[in-house]
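Support request from a user on the community tier.

User writes: "When I paste my structure tokens into the form, the page sometimes reloads and wipes my input. The last time it worked, I copied everything first. Here is what I submitted, just in case something in the input itself triggers the reload:"
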């Protein structure tokens, strides 16, 4: 590369770095606002980011900032994706498919590594994660002093932007010396606020408007401080305006589709479709649509977020959506209101896949109407075979008897489900219910049964060949 070219590249990198640093660290730069500040910021960050790769004081500022910018964008961070207990393996597989290294999985939590782009991809693409959290800090604490110091040592000013406060949304303590949840909550808030206030010369943090949401998990005296990157939980895809009477979480619907190994080449039928969650999740999967395309995330409000990068990732994922795929997805329900809700939800999901949501507006031109799931009003007892083929999947969420009617009427419905064996011989049947005795009412032993929590409700996913 010629000398002239190198100098151009350095200056260009520096301008880009300045823009990014200005956005991400506008508070620091606005306070002190100069080239020197950027150098100071970079020097402060250098030991953490580069662990001595670049000897301090070497190179001019243009060169240094260009490299800092590139490394900052590629810096790997540890994160945690939350899911229903029982869905960890599927979630870990999703992360691996995104090329994000998985560090481990325990009860409803999968740890992984990602750079900023990877975090946006995870937020938009994961089908079975309920939330994605950044690991802001982890340390051991046997008493409240150690907890305070540990929280105060985290560079919150790099995560929480000027004008935003913090809220400790959840504390979980297990087998630890510190066990008073309310005290832990108060101390974590006080320590984070103390550092931010001192750093910004404030008396108190803003309590109105957007807040950085923290979760604190203490397990065997080891504290994990987690910053929420999702905002609304990820099962809120944005296509469902109303849920129906007893809707399934979108992430649970995705988990059971993946657990059953359904693929788009197979027909799919849900005879208790309600608001259409299972069928719509299947359609998103068949179209290769990242489920979070139509919504925003808390990450972009944080100091480490980057709206430009978010839109770039969104546009890339929108480009992968393929509506030309022929899908054979059906749903029915005895309740006409549920069916009309399912029909409006599927149109909304299709609109989001086109980039019409608030978050993706204007990214994609209008496309011809694709194959959509077909929803009809039909009580189970009047069922006809929808598709004259041997290989197909029925994946369904019949009434639980907890929220809908009583347990007895749910059990009667399970008995009536034997009609499925007669109408769809050879198909796979996947049923999610909270009734552990489903098999005895259905009259058949399942090929497999997986315990899976749905929100706080312990449930079972039974798989049969009918
Ligand atoms: C647990 S809800 C399904 C919720 C759905 N998965 C969703 O996410 O909206 C059960 C559904 O079964 C329907 N249902 C109950 N008994 C039925 C029957 N005999 N035939 C057809 N549908 C029935 C109810 O109207 C209800 O919508």
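"...and here is what came back when it finally went through:"
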């Amino acid at each position: 590369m010629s000398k002239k070219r190198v100098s151009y590249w350095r200056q260009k990198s520096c301008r880009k770095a300045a823009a990014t640093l200005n956005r991400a660290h506008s508070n620091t730069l606005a306070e002190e606002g100069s080239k020197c500040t950027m150098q100071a910021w970079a020097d402060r960050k250098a030991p953490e980011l580069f662990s001595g790769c670049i000897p301090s004081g070497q190179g001019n500022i243009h060169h240094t900032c260009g490299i800092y910018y590139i490394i900052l964008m590629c810096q790997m961070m540890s994160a945690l994706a939350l899911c229903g207990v029982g869905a960890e393996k599927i979630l870990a597989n999703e992360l691996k498919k995104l090329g994000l290294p998985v560090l481990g999985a325990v009860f409803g939590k999968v740890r992984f590594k990602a750079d900023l782009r990877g975090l946006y991809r995870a937020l938009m693409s994961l089908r079975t994660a309920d939330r994605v959290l950044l690991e802001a800090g982890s340390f051991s604490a046997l008493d409240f002093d150690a907890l305070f110091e540990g929280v105060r040592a985290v560079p919150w000013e790099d995560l929480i932007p000027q004008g935003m406060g913090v809220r400790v949304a959840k504390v979980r303590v297990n087998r630890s010396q510190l066990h008073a949840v309310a005290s832990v909550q108060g101390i974590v808030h006080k320590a984070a606020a103390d550092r931010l206030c001192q750093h910004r010369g404030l008396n108190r943090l803003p309590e109105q408007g957007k807040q950085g949401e923290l979760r604190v998990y203490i397990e065997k005296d080891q504290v994990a401080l987690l910053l929420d990157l999702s905002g609304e939980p990820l099962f809120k895809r944005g296509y469902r305006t109303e849920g129906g009477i007893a809707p399934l979480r979108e992430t649970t619907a995705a988990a059971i589709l993946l657990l059953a190994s359904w693929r788009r080449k197979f027909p799919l039928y849900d005879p208790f479709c309600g608001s259409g969650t299972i069928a719509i999740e299947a359609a998103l999967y068949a179209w290769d649509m990242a489920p979070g395309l139509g919504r925003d995330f808390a990450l972009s409000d944080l100091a480490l977020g980057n709206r430009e990068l978010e839109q770039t990732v969104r546009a890339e994922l929108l480009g992968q959506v393929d509506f030309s795929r022929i899908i054979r997805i059906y749903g029915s329900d005895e309740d006409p209101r549920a069916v009309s809700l399912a029909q409006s939800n599927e149109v909304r999901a299709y609109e989001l896949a086109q980039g019409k949501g608030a978050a993706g507006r204007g990214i994609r031109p209008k496309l011809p109407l694709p194959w959509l799931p077909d929803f009809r009003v039909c009580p189970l007892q009047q069922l006809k075979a929808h598709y004259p083929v041997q290989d197909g999947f029925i994946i369904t969420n019949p009434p639980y008897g907890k929220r809908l009617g009583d347990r007895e009427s749910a059990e009667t419905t399970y008995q009536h489900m034997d009609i499925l064996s007669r109408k769809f011989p050879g198909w796979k049947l996947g049923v999610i219910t909270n009734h552990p005795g489903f098999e005895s009412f259905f009259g058949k032993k399942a090929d497999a049964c997986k315990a899976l929590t749905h929100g706080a409700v312990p449930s079972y996913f039974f798989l049969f060949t009918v």
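Agent notes: The reload is a front-end session timeout and is unrelated to the input. The first helix runs from residue 3 to 24. The two ends are 67 Å apart (CA to CA). Escalated to web team.
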